[in-house]
Amino acid sequence: MPKTPFKPFPIAPPLAASSLSEPAKQALMELDAAMFQWHRKLAKGELTGRLLAETDLDLEPSLFQGLMAVMRITHGVGRDRAQEPTVGLLAEEMAIDPSRASRIASELIARGFVQRAAAQDDGRKSVLLLTAKGKGAFETVRDLRWTHMVEMFSDWSESDIERFSDLFGRYVAGVLGVRVEEV
User: Fold this and answer.
1) Which residues pair with 164 in a beta bridge?
2) What is the pTM of this model?
């Protein structure tokens, strides 16, 4: 009986031909099925949508993702350095076309979550800055997300949480092609 409630695809020939044990092959198939379900929910905005539904924020998932992109750019998350967010960087961060990013930025501005300002290094360039309302929205969803995370892991042992974090980090590093040294 599978350990996860997700039905895996039939086994792929390269996995079937590998030297892994049958339980390891089965575990990888179950992991793949679970990752597919998780990614599908994330990509469709369902996970963010559920969190937003628990708040009184006037944001749809795509707008919240825009707000988060502004926050990540501002703080340099996943980048070499922090930068002043522009519509172009917003498009890049969200992996969308610039016209869609412009519409998202305009809507965030209209709703008071972001404001447009002149760049520090070039007054002709327009940048996006979080407002107090935008920072408050981020903090509301962040705190709600962590409330759910703490609850979700409440019946896990601390060593299981640490091991899961390590293994998932190694998995993501492998997907990104980054070599991780074991300690």
Assistant:
1) none
2) 0.78
Q: How far apart are CA 32 and CA 25, in angstroms?
A: 11
183 confidence band (pLDDT: 50, 70, 90): very low
Look-up of token digits 């994330």: 42
Handedness of CA 140, 142, 147, 148 (dihedral sign): positive
| DSSP secondary structure letter of residue 12 | P
CB 69 within 8 A of CB 90: yes
User: Which residue type is seen at 42?
Assistant: L
CA atoms of 77 and 79, how far apart (whole Å): 5
Task: Give the residue among 137, 50, 66, 47 at the shortest CA–CA distance from 104.
Answer: 66
CA distance 134 to 114: 6
Q: What is the pLDDT of residues 80-121, one digit of tens each?
A: 999 999 999 999 999 999 999 999 999 999 999 999 998 888
